[in-house]
Predict the 3D structure of the following.
Amino acid sequence: MTTVSTVVMADTFTSASISYSALMPMLIVFVVALAEVLVAGFATRESRHALQVGLSLIGLLGALAALLLGARFHQGVTASVADAAGSRQLGAVVVDGPTIFLQAGVLVLALLAVLIMSERLGGIGADAFTPMGAANPGSVQERAAQRAGLTTSEAFPLMMLAVGGMMLFVAAGDLLTLFVGLEVLSLPLYILTGLARRRRLLSQEAALKYFLLGAFSSAFLLFGAALLYGYAGSVYLSEIASAISAGQPDREALLVPGVLLVLVGLLFKVGAVPFHSWTPDVYQGAPTPVTGFMAACTKLAAFGAMLRVVYVGAAGDRWNWSIVVVVIAALTMIVGAVMSVTQTDVKRLLAYSSIAHAGFILTGVLAFDVTGVSAVMFYLVTYGLTTIAAFGIVYLVRDVQSGSEATHLSQWAGLGRKHPVAAATFAFLMLAFAGIPLTSGFVAKLGAFGAAVGHGGASGAVLAVIGVLSSAITVFVYVRIIVMMYFTEPAENAVEVVSPSILAKVAIGFCAVLTLALGIAPKLLLDWAANASLFLS
């Protein structure tokens, strides 16, 4: 008789070291989001909108204050454990210069987006959102909700949850935290996309497309994370970089596919070609203030995460995978610029414009130098400011008969004669998108293309040339809108620019003024970006 003995090994649990001061900005945002959920459930119908807007503004301002006054003095890794040798700490969250700069950018842009999102245009709740998201478009339930004065106040906690996910996304020090941040920022955006008050079927279709394609991109990212774990034996970006430096000949086949699959998940969020098909549909179908928020903040967060993955985790093997991203960047600029020429809807035109800008920013990423990091971070902030203002104005241009947004280009004919302030502001923002001197867009493009030419080698120079040519194509698109507004006869009583509240006016005006100021005197923000361009590894 044989006796089989089983030896049970005792697992040791190592608690993580957490710096709550470093995490405080994110904690404030998440706590406020949960508080807003309670407000939506228990506050009276008449008070919900004001409470939600007030809590959002207080939470974002509080998080920004905690970031600038507290977290920046606690830089390092947190939620960390010691590595196998016990020689260094491996952190799930990394608080360093890029994290603080990008988180500050997310908070400022989200604050401005809330001001526009809260616009009621004389109604009870935010005008952009349906009174009952669960009701079928045009149904009896939806009409009853409108008559009862119901409001979709859940939009504000969903936005705050997305902001918290974005802040975690740019600070992720390992691939699992990166995935968690991606999901936390994405899931609320899927819901927000389907809550448009008007053109409900288009909004719900956009939400479904965004959700399905987003699920695929998340799966790609997770599969790539699994391959990189198989290669390095760790999900921490610093450990993956060490494994690349040491070399893993028996597992080399896992590295390049793993990096590219992770980048697919990130390239989807920035709308790079060929992962861009969701962008025009979602931009068109989502409530316009949500579109502005997504276009500005999601792009900033996704590129911030991409910078950390590329520069901290995978830079040591860039010669083997960067050529693929170079091709993607070139295609993104070309497709975005060319397709924007054919658009007749303002929101779809701005969607393809954002695709082209994603290619411009990728050009800076591929410089693989600190000048590229600082240029990209400056570009993300300036582009976000211009985008929020542009979509804010689109939100205010309305069809007189239906009251819905007048997004067809033909409806903007003669807008400069009837509403000179709104038209002049929008024309200036279009010039900033085009990169005309004395706008922030010119400084941003000059920095990204200059970094590519100076440090990106031959491929960087080629991308810069493609970027300049693509920018020239987009100039035609933006000038066409300006010509439409100023040199085309308007239709009789076709559209109007509704007068918004002081909050929306402040947001749009602030963005426009900064777009001009950062084109004339960008030194302060450029210096901050340059000083914050070093990653902790």
